[in-house]
Amino acid sequence: MAIFEHEYMVNMEKIGSKSNLITNKGLLNIFQDIGCLHSDVAGLGINDIPNTHLSWVVLHWKVKVLKRAKYGEILKVKTWSRSATKVHCYRDFAVYNQNDELICMATSKWTLTNIEKKSLEKITDDIVARYTPEEKYIFNTPEIEKLKEPTNNQILTYTFKVPRRDIDVNNHVHNLYYLDYAYEALPEEIYNQPEFNNLEIMYKTGAKLGNIVNCYYSNYDNSHFITLKSEDNSHLHAIIKLS
Fold this sequence. Notes:
Blueprint: E1 4-9, H1 24-42, H2 49-52, E2 54-65, E3 74-84, E4 89-96, E5 102-114, E6 119-120, H3 125-130, E7 155-161, H4 177-185, H5 188-191, E8 198-203, E9 212-220, E10 223-230, E11 236-242
Antiparallel strand pairs: 1-3, 2-5, 2-8, 3-4, 4-5, 5-6, 7-9, 8-11, 9-10, 10-11
């Protein structure tokens, strides 16, 4: 099954306090879910972990919203995997409304880990073949450019201790919660603006239970950057770009 499709309703969990429109986190939640469903079909899903000991870990999200769906709308979401190297692969997404209008597109970069050995797993030709990858890509270029940490004007705006509720099956902070942390770090006047239609999250070192995380905010090149670091700033956890 090269292109995997599924329908989603924009429910209460996918809208925020600002409006009745789907949030960026709501979209990421959909992308994560349909990716997991595709992996279930490929025999590399969450229920397969006890046998395979393999788990996919996201390295990068890139999302562009063309039109925001409203509460109650039914969305048709398509996803497909693309060519892979031995250490990472890409997955693209396309979201359509009830009028079959493309309203959001996204891409993501993933790596495969062995949770028993706690190490990266080689992405073999057999694993790639299970997903029947497509050659097409949703954006103009196949690769996602790495985000660079702003070198000046970074302001520490939020510090927190990772709670138990934020830990996922890989024993580190679930990837979607980094967006929550980023929003907490935004200045009030920026946070109160409508949702940003361009979003990128690049993950580096996963934060774990009990870690103290510092969130730095900066405005650079007409974009808002939130950089998440360890307590002593020696480890970079993630960079989020909003515009």
